[in-house]
Amino acid sequence: MTILHVDLNSYFATIEQQQNPYLRGKPIGIVKDIGRTCIIAASREAKQHGVKTGSNVHDAKHLCPQITLVKADFDKYFHYTKRFYTLIESFTPKVHLFSLDEAFLDATDCMNLYGSAEPLAEKIQERMYKDLGSWVTASIGISKNYMLAKLAGEYAPKGGYFRITKHNLDEILATCKLSDICGIGPRLAEKLKNTGVTNLLQIRTLDDAILKRRFGPFWGPELKRIAHGQDSHLFSFLDTNEYMKGVGRTITGFRLCDDEDQIRQIIRNLIEEATMKTRQMDMAGRHLSIFLEGENRIWHRHQTLKYYVRHPDEVFALLYNGFYKRWQRSFPIIRFGVRVSLLKPMSEISGCWLPQWQKRERIWKAVDTINEKYGLFSIRPGTLLKSKIIRPEVTGYLGDKLYQFRD
Amino acid sequence: MEQTIGETISVLGIFKNASFTPKKFKWNNHTYPIENITSIHELKDGEVVKRRYAVLSGPNLYLLEYNRQDETWELVQIWMEG
Ligand SMILES: [Mg+2]
Predict the structure, then answer these.
(1) I want to staple A337 with a disulfide (CB 3.0 to 4.6 A). Which of A227, A250, A309, B77 is the partner?
(2) Within an 8 Å CB–CB cutoff, is residue B38 touching chain A?
(3) What pTM was computed for the model?
């Protein structure tokens, strides 16, 4: 296999600099709105001063007094992502958009066309310069699988490429940061450190049973594979139909939530969004799940139904009234998640829909039409009338967003 | 420094290979030659598709917007250096 990982550098900030040449070469921070305190993206110049995604504006101004704040323009970023995706897809149809600014190419079948991966990487860079703009650059990682291609990208210069081969693999695994591996989050990295693991090569010598006991049935074997440079299971979904994964929404609060009304509202809010997206994709799902995470505990429930659903009231009835209410909540919540999965296009779902279902479908279709025109949550259930609305997320992993780029 | 304008303008350009390239625009009885287009993107405003061109003319950057439904042009914003 030959996999390329293409990652646009400092995406949001670079697009702003592409549009406005006066911002080029300068430290800029993107904020959701002027007056908001969180920097959602920083230009490479701002990063050199230590400003990061997630930095707060106050700290950023301290680190870099000359920083310019720019209001995010998500319409523009989405449009650039569409063009990025079209560009990448013109090289090979085996493309997986991984986030707004990252894509994988499985170039295995087109190697005879380009000779090898390096000239292909150069061609991609050229096209990017021409189609997206002279200021826009990407780092391209090349290797034999998804995990290593993404890791290789960390070593690629901006506007260049880097390849992990069998000759440099061990050296890289021995020296890369644990958190450079996609999927190894800060918690797992910390746990590895506490186990005495400071580099990935060490894991090769650890006993499978010990790994499993310490890191659990998923991460135990997974870490062993990663240490040998084999692909991570986290990427296995790339080869399945994206939409089978389902549509979910999670949100992490700023503080622990112990208020029943608020918990009900948040769950309802997340369900509204997940089902709206399901309808937007013209699908329905028959697997529903919910999780609520406390500081160090997690509660979750899921159920596979015999029928397909796509209306918030049905999903709320099961996840909230059915599961949540029966649970004697024993800890405050920081993270909430709901998901509708095992999706199927409406056109492929046969069987008779009950009259009540038809009625609900008509109601929600009408709601969708109005919300499409006047903005999401223009019409919303009573539960959410007085609460602060959680709006769909626009950064990070795409999940269902991907589906919108397919047209 | 940026300034929001929101005024109707007229635009002159070339239509070639199914794409339009603005060459100059007229705003307040003054004609601005377009030296460079730095960015083009589309957005949906309700059901109306709008296409935005960021263009350089002289020392300033102008954001022009084409409304595909009304077929009108608007000067959205000006950025001035300093
Ligand atoms: Mg990036």
Answers:
(1) A250
(2) yes
(3) 0.69
